[in-house]
Specification:
It comes from Sander lucioperca. Belongs to the neurexin family. The chain is 5% helix and 40% strand. The protein has nine helices and 81 strands. It is elongated and about 125 Å long. The N and C termini lie far apart (106 Å).
């Protein structure tokens, strides 16, 4: 380890204050002279250069201010070079370029480089200094001598290496080298294996591409295995390492590593590596970097231009699509020439040439002007893309002349090989202020950075970039955010259900932001479960006939989900099952009890394992379901098919042990005998429950917390969870480092704060809600931090985003434990529940940790307060240990949320009767009942709803009667109006409540809601998505009209009825879905979707009783001779011994 000597300090820019302030005094702890280096002018164009005499491995740099002064640096840049030209800026974390300096003139501040730099020259550029002083510096470098063999390749040369002794097959072969070049294409390495297999490492457009070939003397083309690196044609050293072990190969370029699979024939290599000169010929190419909007370069025109001939050429490279390259006045003409980039195309005024010029490669431009004629040539040669600026992009800060104003976007990028009339511009003279003028330039270096290599875009997001930033296109990736890190989809059907989604196909991302891709899965949402259904290539019942020429039938099952997806689904589900059925005729199955099994199946993750039990039995039992239940056809066997009967039998059941799922293949053996027949069915894999979604912990003390290992989210961190609380503040999560930290907390009853520090100072992202969050309901939080921005989402409120500082620190470095529900200081603890906590797609098991932690309880009950509103149409929310369910037993609807209407098409011959049992049996002598009991039997009110669709007029929609000759009827009358009739007293008159709602028999869906309490009645009609509350017109009729209703009932009803509900009874639902209910169905009754709001008339083919000529006919013309029966197309509530609610078409 050595340090810098006086003779090593080589150069500095411009003048210094006095000879005592020269660079020879700029050594740490030296007090001679003026005590250090101090230039005449203190600005950012000064630099101090050190020549170490030979290539050195530099490990650290130390700075100190000028002795006995107020002159010191507070920030600086470091540049390195092998030749004293073509400098390369050293960056921390591949992002931040500035190094912290001193806070006084005496203290030595040392910075250890994260990765040693191998170079001969070092250049320090001051960025900031003590505002009350000047630039002042004493410098020291630390490192070791570096020795290496060097070979120079001229494009036609090569070097061959053959193994003298073959290593064993278990040895790892490693090839490493460093290279530098100005050419962006060429073969770097060719390795030959066995049987004409070979690998070729090729430089193409500044990127390294690894190809696999199979063929004699194949040195190019082939199968592309991987592409690594970018901008490798920058004449700087780049490290390449290939590590081969068996069929894997790791390719590392600088710090970027990729793993690929290679054939076994390439397990050993002979190396061909490109007249070899064992010294490195250095080409000097001085580039200039235009760093920002203030950058410009102004050069004087040549005397030859007065003749009207102008010739300019240059090379440029950039990532930006737009920018001014050069401008100059036309000789002897009024006007100017502007050469610029627009939409990545080169433009001269309105002419254009070239395209895709913002690809970071060098492009060449040559422009010639002869009086009133301008020629422009654009060429892309080999790996060069050259860049040209004459007057440049910006203007001097003191200039505001009209001709200095730039109507185009400024250019940010690199230029080199700038020539005027064939004479190369000496940019070193420009740097020394001996030629032209400039501002905000970096001369003798190209500071272009490929921000897309390696790409920060995750999950296949496409990276594009400009000079100062990058952008990730997440289209079609299934992910979102600035770096395509967070998944757009939920992790299970359970999560979709709790957002109010019903059955259907959904994209499921089982590990969130993890590496497993989303998949399209069918979710079957029932009242109690949310099933994930994973299909395979054959879920149908498949027949197998006898094959005398073969002994076995083998079938494989290919699932729609990948292996990793299947493993994750099975692992996180509470229950999984798969149907396995075998139908047999003279075809034995397991050959129980003692024989060798004729058939078996392979199940489980990966390759799976052979299983010799059948659906409905236990693993390892060698039984079928009937053997477990002791009800097989032959008690001497444990499977029905093993009885070997000449009649059809079957062994069927569910496989429910997750360790043996899914079924991978099936082997059927006893199929070769004459007369043998069989069929099998392997159903889809079905799983329900999400252990991650309901994993919760309850914190009942402010001092309690759960702790987990350190969170590693250096470049991307996404955190999501749900919480509920009655407290107004508390810390959800905290993880600390030496200086860095990350924290999410409830700062007030209506605000969540996400704060962190990655070395750039604390950054906070806040979301304030317009409702309190301490309402003891579940609320969701999702926070993400990446190299571009930080975001925070709370429920469905507008999210908040904060951009990361440009060129700041990007790595989040934590080292303490992760605290959940509190902090290490035991202050500001959270009171309440946290569940489904996930960090970068990994769920933390809060429940297991809570079982052993005082002050924290596993689980968190009480979900209906948050999800109960999902239950519709009188559905009841029922609490479960893990979630909730909607009970639809008192609703006319069904489905996961009681949202599906139960509908049926009725014909005139259809009849449905529902019997309502009394809470007690009526006495045979009903007249002996006390009056109080009679009043209990009499209804005090009704809550009725139904939907209908018909073209029949008149029509009886609803009829309810009792033993006491009370009734209610809802009908469409002769005038196509809705009408409600009540008779609430057997000795009284019929009350008719008519509305002026017309066109009820128009074939469209109408919904009617009737509510009566004592003598108050209200009717609502929902029609074509509109709701009307109608004024009812009351009149009184005699009992003679009972005959009219009987005649109307005898017509029957043709149309659709849906969602029929009477108080707590759903007669139509009972008839269709619960045949064990006290219901009687006569005639055809088929469930349909006719209750949807579609305006289409599904009953056009039905025959109605509307007579020809007019739409609605008087009822007397339609009364049949057998109309004495009361019922017809109605619901009847008959109170004899049993109440009867009857819905009938006769």
């Amino acid at each position: 380890i050595g340090s810098m000597t006086r003779s090593m300090i080589l150069n500095c820019l411009f003048f210094f204050l006095t000879s005592s302030h020269g660079p020879v005094f700029a050594k740490v702890n030296r007090r001679e002279g003026a005590g250090g280096w101090s230039p005449l002018v203190s600005d950012r164009y000064q630099w101090l250069e050190v020549d170490l005499g030979r290539r050195t491995q530099i490990t650290a740099v130390a700075t100190q201010g000028r002795y006995g002064s107020s002159d010191w640096l507070t920030a600086y840049l470091l540049m390195f070079s092998d030749t004293g030209h073509n400098w390369r800026q050293h960056r921390q974390e591949d992002s931040l370029g500035a190094f912290p300096g001193n806070s006084n003139a005496d203290t030595v501040v040392q910075y250890k480089l994260e990765q040693p730099v191998i170079a001969r020259f070092l250049r320090l550029i001051p960025l900031d200094w003590n505002p009350t002083g000047r630039i002042g510096l004493r410098l020291e470098t630390y490192g070791c001598r570096y020795t290496s063999d060097v070979a120079n390749f001229d494009g036609n040369s090569s070097l061959v290496y053959r193994w003298s002794v073959r290593p064993s097959w278990t040895a790892m072969e490693v090839v490493s080298l460093k290279f530098k070049t100005l050419k962006n294409s060429g073969t770097l390495l060719h390795a030959e294996g066995q049987r004409d297999h070979s690998l070729t490492l090729v430089l193409e457009k500044g990127r390294l591409l690894l190809y696999h070939q199979q063929g004699v003397s194949s040195t190019s083309g082939g199968q592309l295995l991987v592409s690594v690196g970018s901008l490798l044609d920058d004449q700087h050293w780049h490290h390449v390492k290939l590590e081969s072990l068996s069929t894997h190969l790791n390719l590392t370029v600088d710090k970027n590593t990729h793993q690929v699979h290679i054939p076994a024939e390439l397990s050993h290599w002979d190396i061909h590596q490109g007249n070899v000169t064992f010294s490195c010929a250095e080409q000097v190419s001085v580039a200039v970097t235009f760093t920002d909007s203030m950058s410009f370069l102004r050069l004087p025109g040549l005397t030859s231009w007065s003749s009207g001939i102008v010739s300019v050429a240059l090379q440029f490279r950039t990532w930006n699509k737009a920018g001014l390259l050069l401008t100059f006045d036309l000789p002897q003409e009024e006007g100017s020439v502007w050469l610029y980039l627009s939409e990545a195309r080169l433009r001269l005024q309105i002419t254009k040439a070239g395209s895709g010029l913002n690809d970071g490669q060098w492009h060449s431009v040559e422009l010639t002007s002869r009086k009133q004629h301008i020629n422009k040539y654009t060429a892309v040669g080999q790996s060069l893309i050259e860049h040209h600026v004459f007057s440049s992009s910006g203007c001097h800060v003191q200039e505001s002349r009209q001709e200095c104003r730039n109507p185009f976007k400024v250019f940010q990028g690199c230029m080199r090989l700038l020539t005027l009339d064939g004479q190369t511009v000496d940019l070193i003279k420009v740097q020394q202020r001996l030629l032209g003028n400039y501002s905000h330039l970096q001369i003798d270096m190209c500071g272009i950075i490929d921000r897309c290599s390696p790409s920060h875009c995750k999950h296949g997001g496409r990276c594009t970039q400009s000079w100062s930033t990058f952008h990730c296109n997440c289209s079609n990736s299934g992910y979102r955010g600035a770096t395509c890190h967070s998944s757009r989809y939920e992790q299970s059907c359970e999560a979709y259900k709790h957002k109010g989604n019903t059955s259907g196909h959904y994209h499921i991302d089982v590990d969130g932001s993890g590496p497993i891709k989303p998949q399209l899965i069918y979710c079957n949402m029932t009242e109690d479960m949310s099933w994930m259904v994973i299909q395979h290539n054959n879920t149908e019942l498949t027949g197998v006939h006898s094959f005398p020429e073969r002994n076995q039938h083998l079938t494989h099952f290919d699932y729609a989900s990948d292996e990793e997806q299947l493993a994750s689904i099975i692992s996180q589900s509470e229950h999984c099952e798969q149907e396995l059925s075998y139908h047999c005729r003279k075809s034995r199955l397991l050959n129980t009890p003692e024989g060798t099994p004729f058939s078996w199946w392979v199940g489980g993750l990966g390759p799976g394992q052979v299983q010799t039990y059948w659906g409905g039995a236990l693993p390892g039992s060698r039984q079928c379901a009937c053997g477990l239940q002791d009800n097989c056809l032959d008690s001497n066997h444990y499977c029905n098919c093993d009885a070997d009967h000449d009649q059809w039998a079957n062994d069927s059941g569910l496989l429910t042990h997750k360790e043996t799922l899914p079924v991978r293949s099936l082997v059927l053996g006893d199929i070769q005998r004459p007369g043998s027949e069989a069929a099998y069915r392997v159903g889809p894999l079905r799983c329900h429950g999400d252990k991650n979604f309901w994993n919760a912990a309850f914190f009942d003390k402010e001092t309690s917390y759960l702790h987990f290992p350190t969170f590693h989210g250096e470049l991307n961190a996404d955190i999501s969870f749900l919480f509920k609380t009655t407290s107004s503040s508390g810390v959800f999560l905290e993880n600390l480092g030496i200086k860095d930290f990350i924290r999410i907390e409830l700062s007030s009853a209506s605000e969540v704060v996400f704060s962190f520090d990655v070395g750039n100072g604390q950054l906070e992202v806040r979301v304030e809600t317009n409702i309190p969050l301490n309402d003891n309901r579940w609320h969701s939080v999702r926070a993400e931090r990446n190299v571009k921005e930080a975001s925070l989402h709370v429920d469905e409120f507008p999210s908040a985003t904060q951009e990361a500082p440009a060129d700041g620190h990007i790595h989040l470095q934590l080292n303490s434990q992760l605290f959940i529900g509190g902090t290490a200081s035991r202050q500001k603890g959270f009171l309440g529940c946290i569940r489904s906590l996930q960090l970068n797609g990994v769920t933390l098991d809060l429940e297991e940790r809570a079982k052993i932690t005082p002050g924290v309880r596993p689980g968190c009950p009480g979900h209906c307060s948050s999800y109960g509103s999902l239950c519709q149409n009188q559905g009841r929310c029922v609490e479960r240990d893990n979630g909730f369910s909607c009970k639809c037993d008192q609703s006319a609807y069904t489905g996961a949320f009681c949202h599906k209407e139960v509908s049926a098409n009725f014909k005139s011959s259809t009849s449905v009767a529902y019997n309502l049992k009394e809470p007690y049996e009526l006495s045979r002598n009903s007249s002996a009942l006390p009056s109080s009991i009679y009043s209990d039997v009499t209804l005090k009110g009704e809550n009725i709803s139904l939907s209908f669709r018909t073209s029949q007029c008149p029509a009886l929609l609803l009829y309810i009667n009792s033993f006491y000759r009370e009734y209610l009827a809802l009908l469409i009358n002769n005038h196509d109006e809705l009408e409600l009739r009540y008779k609430l007293d057997s000795s009284g008159d019929v009350e008719v409540l008519g509305s002026r709602v017309t066109n009820m028999a128009d074939g469209r869906l109408h919904t009617v809601i009737i509510r009566r309490q004592a003598d108050t009645v209200s009717v609502q009609v929902h029609r074509h998505t509109h709701t009307h509350t109608h004024t009812l017109i009351m009149m009184f009729l005699s009992d003679e009209l009972d005959a009219e209703l009987a005649g109307l009932a005898s017509l029957g009803f043709t149309g659709c009825l849906s969602g029929v509900f009477f108080n707590s009874i759903s007669p139509l639902k009972a008839a269709l879905l619960h045949p064990d209910s006290p219901v009687i169905v006569s005639g055809p009754l088929v469930q349909s979707s006719c209750g949807t709001s579609s305006p289409a008339n599904p009953y056009a083919a039905e025959t109605t009783h509307s007579l020809s000529g007019t739409r609605c006919q008087p009822l007397v013309n339609a009364i049949k001779s057998d109309s004495a029966l009361i019922g017809g197309n109605a619901i009847h509530l008959s109170r004899s011994k049993n109440n009867s609610l009857k819905y009938r078409n006769s």
